[in-house]
Amino acid sequence: MPWPSRKRDKGAVADKKEPDAKIAKTKEETSDKEEEEKSAKPPAGSSKSGWKNWKKAKESESGGEESKITYCHWLLKSEPESRLEKGVDVKFSVDDLKAQPNQTTCWDGVRNYQARNFLRAMKLGQQAFFYHSNCKEPGIVAIVKIVKEAYPDHTQFDQKDPHYDSTSRKENPKWSMVDVQFVRMTKRFIPLSEIKAHHLAHKADGGPLKDMMLFTRQRLSIQPLTQEQFDFVLSLEEEKP
């Protein structure tokens, strides 16, 4: 059995700001208020121009064709700071992932049905953002990839695990997990507040982040991203904060 379950999704928590995380080891039942307050005031100078410039560059690359709305990337939340759940520390940061053999781990402990279904939809080789949640400054820190598709989460049957589920049966397990592997750190930390600024601008003027689940379904620890959303957020690592 790996380390303490790190990603759980019971209804979600708001990252301290936002909820959940790999559930990451986060509690998906806390309020999102703090996180929303933290990200409510977008930092100066970031929005419309960022989207317009990015869109112009993408259109010139693709001949102006609009991409289909399909989810092919993910955002996985995990708590980098210690928090005890039923006596077990559910902390799991990107540094903890990098310290694992082969820099690979199972993403266990998710206990929200929608998040579980997203796990089951993940395909081998797809990439995801590793997002630090429920901490002083939530945001994206790294990129990981799916190296094993969904299979039964062993923690649901372990009575000593904080995510034990007495109603789940081995012949018909309720909960699934995937294996993820560290790919690389993002070139810089991309904070929630910065992503929020672009989200607000895109809501007003159109853009890939207007319906991003990080803001429409904050409490989910596993969230899908379209190619356009993933590419736009990734482009932020090249910009000065």
Word description of this protein:
This protein has helices at residues 33-40, 48-62, 94-98, 113-121, 192-205, 213-216, 227-235, and strands spanning 22-25, 71-78, 84-85, 88-89, 104-107, 127-132, 139-152, 176-191, 222-226. The chain has a domain at 71-234: ph1033 like fold. It starts with 21 loop residues before the first strand and ends in a 6-residue tail after the last helix. It is globular. Mean pLDDT is 83; it is low at 17-27 and 29-46. The strands form two sheets. It has a six-stranded mixed sheet. Strands 3-4 form a two-stranded antiparallel sheet. The protein contains seven helices and nine strands. The protein has 241 residues and is of the alpha+beta class.
Stretches with pLDDT under 50, minimum 5 residues: 17-27, 29-46
The percent range for helix content is 25-40%
The succession of helices and strands, N to C, reads: EHHEEEHEHEEEHHEH
Q: What is the molecular shape?
A: globular
The helix/strand class is: alpha+beta
What is the CATH architecture annotation of the domain at 71-234? Roll
What is the makeup of the main sheet?
Answer: 6 strands, mixed
Mean residue pLDDT? 83
Provide the CATH top-level class of the domain at 71-234: Alpha Beta
Query: Helix tally?
Result: 7
Question: How would you write the strand order of the largest sheet?
Answer: 5-8-7-6-2-9
* The named CATH superfamily of the domain at 71-234: ph1033 like domains
Distance separating the two termini: 40 Å
Function: Specifically binds 5-hydroxymethylcytosine (5hmC), suggesting that it acts as a specific reader of 5hmC.
Organism: Grallaria varia (variegated antpitta)
Region (Disordered): 1-62
Biased composition (Low complexity): 41-52
